[in-house]
Amino acid sequence: MNVTRGFTGRPRVHNPGLPPGQYDAREDWPVLSAEVTPDLSPADWSFRVDGLVEHPHTWDWDAAHALPASAYEGDIHCVTGWSKFGVRFGGVSLDAFLSVARPHGSATHALAYSHTGYTTNLPLADLTGGRAWIVWEYDGAPLPPEHGGPARLVVPHLYFWKSAKWIAGITLLDHDEPGFWERNGYHARGNPWEEQRYSGD
Amino acid sequence: MTRFAVPGRIAVGGQTASRWQTATLTEIRRETPRAATFRLAVPGWAGHLPGQHLMLRLTAPDGYAAQRHYSIASAPDPSGHIELTLDRVPDGEVSGWFHTVARPGDTVEVRGPLSGFFAWPGDRPALLLGAGSGVVPLMSMVRHHRARGLTVPLRMLVSARSPEQLIYASELGPETTPVFTRSAPPGVPVGRMAAAHVAPLLADRPEGGWEAYVCGSNAFAEHASRLLIAAGQPVDRIRIERFG
Ligand SMILES: Cc1cc2nc3c(=O)[nH]c(=O)nc-3n(C[C@H](O)[C@H](O)[C@H](O)COP(=O)(O)OP(=O)(O)OC[C@H]3O[C@@H](n4cnc5c(N)ncnc54)[C@H](O)[C@@H]3O)c2cc1C
């Protein structure tokens, strides 16, 4: 251990919900996208599931809203170090979209892409089983544009760069294909509990 | 609607990013009443490109650690040293330690360099827009441009509250236009960065156009990127580093 002379740090909080190396941002919700926030209206928004699926399909705003509503209430963790507790996102479970598109047995990974062209890769297993959502509400109000509105992907058990803002679709693949940050040195999976921040972690 | 995302500028090696290295503080230089530069000896430093950042970790005797990202202020050079410039954040855990406790000889840990996205290898004409400590990674680009005697066009617009708060003031040259939001020297207008600052630079576009780099708070990044788009800068040639 490499102790820093004279560093004591904040009073210790025992918080079992805090992954290693993270701190509680409380009311703050920092914005860290590397791109310009797009001017995207609900009417321009759509979400597509394609690749290794039986029925490639595109939902527009109304069609997506017609799927059964589902909410995520819990914590989110950003690779830059902050975590945010007890957030509330409203939308639709990704399972609802996948049950229409019907992934082939050969599909193992997904590349999620945004209306800006941002991409991020995920194992398909991280997107199924009630662990991923397409959301358009935050705390009961429309999701603000700089946080990914009108709609974003939310995969709360992974670092938040995986939760692509301004989500446009996912392409199912039989291999892993690095997305935007993953090509820029970030970890392929990004599990905060194992502190998978950068490739090699 | 779908565009290509802004591609990364360089590939980033996993090895250097995942290894924590000891860095020894060798010098502290005051820049403004709120900001100071910390020079660190990092013998195993793999080298960086202007615009990249690192992760820095402080560890308490009980093993508690705090880690934050900091942009690299110095240009790449073979000295085995790098420089960081830190704003003093009220009640800041890490910046507070640097501004009140740190002295030459102290050691901290760093890993990096990180992120090839905001990097500028010195190849394309660069238009730099920063505010507050957002000038730090941009200054690395300006210093690199000077140190290598590069001829590729480079211009910087930097926003500060007042001349006293302008980081690197004495180092800024004709490539830079400062914008003061609270108080300015006599004869210099006070106000936010505006279309009038950005438009002339875009009217005077170099061959191949500008690669724009925007750095600062989220509020500044939103404001500056809108100014750039309104002035005709292509959205896929704007790179943004938000300090959160
Ligand atoms: C890519 C990147 C590059 C950056 N580059 C630079 C740079 O070059 N220079 C620079 O100065 N900064 C830079 N930053 C910002 C830097 O990472 C830190 O966020 C900043 O120094 C503040 O850290 P801190 O530990 O001093 O403050 P923190 O302790 O994180 O506090 C920040 C604010 O949050 C509040 N806060 C946070 N946690 C708690 C808590 N548990 N309890 C109470 N209050 C809390 C504090 O009161 C304070 O107002 C960069 C950020 C990023 C993402």
CATH-level-2 architecture of chain A: Alpha-Beta Complex
Residue share in β-strands of chain B: 25-35%
Helix/strand/pairing class of chain A, anyone?
mainly beta
User: What is the domain tally of chain A?
Assistant: 1
| Structural class designation of chain B | alpha/beta
**Share of helix of chain A, binned:** under 10%
Domain tally of chain B: 2
How would you name the CATH homologous superfamily of the largest domain in chain B?
Answer: Nucleotide-binding domain of ferredoxin-NADP reductase (FNR) module
**Through-space gap between termini of chain A:** 18 Å
In total, the number of strands of chain A is 11
Shape of chain B, please? globular
- Name the average pLDDT of chain B: 93
**Unreliable spans of chain B:** none
At a glance:
The complex is a heterodimer of chains A (201) and B (244). With 201 residues, chain A is mainly beta. Chain A has helices at residues 61-65, 94-101, 180-183; strands at residues 23-24, 46-51, 57-60, 69-77, 82-93, 109-114, 119-123, 133-138, 141-142, 152-154, 167-173.
